[in-house]
Amino acid sequence: MKILRLIAILLPMILTAFWVEASKVDTLAVYSASMNKKVGVSVITPEGVDKGERLPVVYLLHGYGDNHLHGYLKLTEVRRFADCLRMIVVTPDGDSSWYFDSPVDSTFRYETFVSKELVSYIDSHYPTIADRNHRAITGLSMGGHGALYLAIRHQDEYGAAGSMSGGVDFRPFPENWDIKKRLGEKGEYPDNWERNTVLAQLPQLKPDALRLVIDCGTEDFFYEVNCNLHKELSRLKIPHEFTTRPGAHNWKYWQRSLRDHLLFFSDFFKENDSENN
Predict the structure, then answer these.
(1) Are 201 and 158 in contact (CB under 8 A)?
(2) Are 277 and 133 in contact (CB under 8 A)?
(3) 93 touches 68 (CB < 8 A)
(4) DSSP assignment of 242-264, as one string?
(5) pLDDT digits over 73-123, tens only?
(6) Name one GO molecular function term (predicted).
(7) Under a CB-based contact definition with an 8 Å cutoff, are residues 128 and 88 in contact?
(8) What is the pTM of this model?
(9) d(CA 55, CA 134)
(10) In what order do the strands lie in the sheet with 211-217?
């Protein structure tokens, strides 16, 4: 009995360790013609992709101060999720870009890089299902803003999108996170600050154009702006999943959020597989 109990305790740990190490991680430097530089990118491919097999892709955007090598790879189980859910996960470096093409700094064109150059590169070099019904994007904090911003502006590329504790309206934070370096001083360039929030993109979004999942912790400094986004989406009758739960702006909260988002996208991909069969 003692041996059986020990096996019962150790087996999940052994399996988790196996799953974490099974997937393959490529660390790339992808050239951006729009910025004339190479950008760091991590690509997670599930274990045992068969010859001829094609997989859906999730683009995962990091937050301010992070990069493609830290955060998700070191502090979450994203590799295990990629294995279990049979999806490719791509995490690009976003610097402090907020993932738009800066109107004041032509060297920061991360909207073009992520949604055009990188998508094209990944579809050319990996066994993807290269259509919007098998391509999703999400991210946390700055990356949550980026994911919704890019998905709404590039509905031809993405079929689903999410935001975890996203900075979906940064206007209340004019001195934070290098936003003024990307948009100019708020007082001097107010139109830049108005045009580049997620809220400002919503008129481009038609009902059912994107499958959306959004969450934020109730102790997060972005909680209010996420609630405002939820209210505006509801007013416009845009279907979306919106979840709040106790939590702050930290990895303890995002570890669960990431799992929930990837499961949400997995269901979306499977629905499209069923419709095509």
Answers:
(1) no
(2) no
(3) yes
(4) EEEES--SSHHHHHHHHHHHHHH
(5) 999 999 999 999 999 999 999 999 999 999 999 999 999 999 999 999 999
(6) acyltransferase activity, transferring groups other than amino-acyl groups
(7) yes
(8) 0.90
(9) 8
(10) 24-32, 37-45, 88-92, 57-61, 135-139, 160-164, 211-217, 241-245
Q: Directed axis angle between helix 2-22 and helix 78-85, to 10°?
A: 90
Using an 8 Å Cβ cutoff, are 58 and 139 in contact?
no
Query: Cα angle vertex 135, ends 211, 29, to 5°?
Result: 135
**pLDDT band, very low/low/confident/very high, at 209 (cuts 50, 70, 90):** very high
Q: CA 25 to CA 89: how far, in whole Å?
A: 9
Burial of 237 (0-12, 13-18, 19+ CB in 10 A): exposed
Q: Enumerate the β-bridge partners of residue 26.
A: 43
Write the CA distances from 196 to 107, 118, 137, 149, 240, integer angstroms: 17, 21, 18, 8, 21
Residue of 121, 147, 167, 148 whose CA lies nearest to 29: 121
- Please identify which residue in the block is written with the tokens 């041996």: 3
Tokens (6 digits) for 58 = 């999730």
Q: How far apart are CA 84 and CA 77, in angstroms?
A: 11
Query: Tens digits of per-residue pLDDT, 153-173?
Result: 999 999 999 999 999 999 999
116-147 core/surface letters (b: 16 or more CB in 10 A; e: else): bbbbebbeeebbbbeebbbbbbbbbbbbbbbb
Residues 119/157, Cβ–Cβ less than 8 Å? yes
